[in-house]
Amino acid sequence: MTAEILAVGTELLLGDTLNSNAQYLSKELAGLGVSVYHHTVVGDNPVRLKKAYADAFSRADIVITSGGLGPTKDDLTKEIGAEYFGKKLVMDEDALKTLESFFTRIGRVMTENNRKQAMMPEGALLIPNNNGTAPGCIISDGGKTLIMLPGPPRELNPMFEERVVPYLRERSDGVYVSRILRLCGVGESTAEDMIKDLIEAQTNPTIAPYAKLNELTFRITASAKTEGEALALMEPTVAELYKRFGDNIYGEGNNLSLARVVVEKLIEKNMTIAVAESCTGGLMASALVDIEGSSKVFLEGLVTYSNEAKINRLGVKGETLKNHGAVSCECAKEMAVGVAKLVGTDIGIAITGVAGPDGGTDEKPVGLVYAAISVKSNVTVNELKYTGSRQRIRGRACMATLDMIRRALS
């Protein structure tokens, strides 16, 4: 099966809203074995929208839209979709009752234009929306299928997972199963070179690599008549990837993160951690706090940006700063030991560097970062060198430090 993603909304063309739905849908469809060759964005214009439908269906069996299902006059996705298929819009009583119940529950009067959201193309399959007012629907006719979903991701994502995924699986000749390996500590070009032979020889299963900051993802997908057969088909490939990349693979799963692995390992080992940050300015603390249960192990985070803060809060020696500077192996070591001693934790983490865009020198250029970990006073310091924007350098430093913690705990 082939699909095209059609995002509807002038706000997307103006850059006011990020089209994150296209990214989400593409990843989910790839896991189902549905090929996506085109993304289209069109504004709230009936002529251009109708042409976008025609173009999309000339290339794909399935078109999935996001946006344009609201109550206002410029919400035209459903109206033009019905027109394209030659369907009339009729009131769906179940959708109307759900809509009325929603407004009663939140204590607001439902205006007349909201009734528009309960109008459905005749013969369409309703997709209930449990997180908003705009239900979706599916029209299938003449070998073509139109799946219409609302724009907000908090509404679209659960609707896709709960209703669209089963719908697509029922109409597939077999099953497509994916395993997702997550890696850190190996560069994109190095990783590509390491699996070049596997990529060139692939048929079923396939390997799809993705890169983001200091992290890599391998999606291994196999197709077969049953899930068990698909898993068996991909097992030799997965085993080979583990053999080649070893402990650079930090786990499996679509929603797994390096921070989650670190927090779970800390909980498992009953160890506590504190963080002292300079150039990352709280990114590390934020990454840990994002994980539920982190309060059991993460006790305190300090942003010691100035030299005075490093001295007064962490006990970094003035002599160290004078002789080596704040961006140095020596300073990072004293910061890590100092924060662990100050807070009374098993582990102390420190990050200090030059995030740019200014402040670099020939000796200490922008992108130079030192990350230290003190585990019961045994200290390891890594020198990291990055390029790119200030935000990219800070983000990569945070990811690399999380990986240091993971490896130390392993």
Structure overview:
It is a single chain. The chain is an alpha/beta fold and 410 residues long. The protein is 41% helix and 26% strand. The chain contains 15 helices and 17 strands. The chain starts with a strand and ends with a helix. 40% of the residues are buried.
Number of strands: 17
Helices, by number, come to 15
Structural class by sheet pairing and helices: alpha/beta
Say what oligomer this is: single chain
Distance between the termini: 43 Å
What is the alpha-carbon Rg in Å?
Answer: 26 Å
Main sheet strand line-up: 2-1-3-8-7-6
Strand proportion: 25-35%
Main sheet characteristics? 6 strands, mixed
Mean pLDDT: 95
Question: What labels would you give this structure?
Answer:
single chain, 41% helix, 15 helices, five-stranded mixed beta sheet, alpha/beta
